[in-house]
Amino acid sequence: xxxxxxNGPRRVPGHIIGSIIATGFGTGFIAGxxxxxxxxxxxxxxxxxxxxxxxxxxxxxxxxxxxxxGGPRPDRAGRFMGRGYWIVVAIxxxxxxxxxxxxxxxxxxxxxxxxxxxLVVGLHFYGxxxxxxxPMYHWLATAMTVLAVAxxxxxxxxxxxxxxxxxxxxxxxxxxxxxxxxxxTGGRRRLA
Length: 192
Fold this sequence. Notes:
By secondary structure, the chain is an all-alpha fold. The chain has 6 helices and no strands.
């Protein structure tokens, strides 16, 4: 053992709080973007999201004693909420709110707001993956970016707000849940 490492795999700094935050945002993406679907789908998706979120939170809290692999290299391990993190978050906030202002007030296309949110949130995971030296975040970034672009395509093809919400919103929520589950099951060991 060197540098205080144990024989078990390393945990990404902030794993517990990050997983709880991702679960919360995943639930928000699903619950907030399924309302335009035909009944009974909004209720089914909201109840399903609540049950999945509860199960994930319980699993995350129970995982505190375990140490999944795929943590950042030692040179960046202490920078969970360091300067790089705050730069990524600041850029994300500017892009998010600036883009939403243009989409809603200038273009009057609120139907694609969730696609924009998914795009910005997805892209911010590329930055976080770099800052934390955790390539697993690049997979989440790619999934959410693809879902965002797919939402814009759905809109351009005439799919409307329900279609965009399903693809970019509900899809991004499921991607966030998947990332939490992936982290819990150790799937990130293979890609870190």
